[in-house]
UniProtKB/TrEMBL annotation:
Residues modified to N6-(pyridoxal phosphate)lysine: K27
Cofactor: pyridoxal 5'-phosphate
Organism: Segatella maculosa OT 289
Free-text function comment from the UniProt entry: Pyridoxal 5'-phosphate (PLP)-binding protein, which is involved in PLP homeostasis.
Name of this chain's protein: Pyridoxal phosphate homeostasis protein
Keyword field contains GTP-binding: no
């Protein structure tokens, strides 16, 4: 192994306050890197491609909690529904309904986050704040018994300007508080704010994050 995964992992963990969880983003990284992090006690990993994830699930320890962090096509939901621990990037009612349907088949309740689009980039997925308000106002989600909305997820703009990034995280945090009051005051589950990646997770933990998604800093550059 050319990357010292154990050392990198402990550095990141050392930077996190106790109440902030790490999702180690292992997409495009080999199984041995995941095993190295696992051996150090890491149990939560994130992947963004269904096929790659399915392969890893088969060969890696069964007590890993897998988060799906990428854009998920509705026709792929059925493959991950039996085991996925959290689907982080839900950005439509259609996807939410499909997750509910597939979860029901396995008699599960699947944890999800609603993905927000706050960053400047046009290519990014996610709900605008207004679209997210609409989705919740519509109320259909309340009838879905096999999903549990646990909070929000977002990616900040891909910039070195940590001030702008911080402002985007703050926007997301304020929006979380708004939704908490309007829709989730009685929900203990609605508590997660998944933001912060390798280049901005230190900013994220100072700006409302409860869950960071760090890949490159732990596993090195991805080989595509
Ligand atoms: C790849 C990815 C990450 C991790 O990015 P790094 O810069 O490698 O830390 C986090 N979140 C999402 C949604 C990703 O796709």
């Amino acid at each position: 192994m050319t990357v010292d995964v154990a050392k990198n992992l402990h550095e990141v963990l050392g930077n996190l306050p106790q109440d902030i969880r790490l999702v180690a983003i292992s997409k495009y990284h080999p199984d041995e890197y995941i095993r190295a992090a696992y051996a150090e006690g890491q149990r939560v990993f994130g992947e963004s491609h269904e096929q790659e994830l399915s392969h890893k699930v088969e060969i890696l320890p069964k007590d890993i909690e897998w988060h799906f962090i990428g854009h998920l096509q509705t026709n792929k939901v059925k493959y991950i529904a039996p085991y996925i621990s959290m689907i982080e990037a839900v950005d439509s009612l259609k996807l939410l309904k499909e997750i509910d349907k597939q979860a029901a088949k396995h008699d599960r309740i699947i944890n999800v986050l609603l993905e927000l689009h706050i960053a400047k980039e046009e290519t990014k997925y996610g709900l605008t704040l207004d679209a997210c308000r609409e989705l919740l106002k519509d109320g259909t989600w309340r009838t879905l018994g096999h999903i549990r909305i646990c909070g929000l997820m977002m990616m900040a703009s891909n910039t070195d300007d940590q001030k702008q990034i911080a402002a985007e995280f703050d926007t997301a945090t304020r929006f979380f508080e708004e939704l908490k009051v309007c829709y989730f005051a009685d929900s203990e589950a609605f508590k997660e704010r998944s933001w912060g990646m390798s280049h901005d997770y230190l900013t994220a933990i100072a700006h409302g994050s409860t869950m960071v998604r760090v890949g490159t800093t732990i596993f090195g550059p991805r080989v595509y």
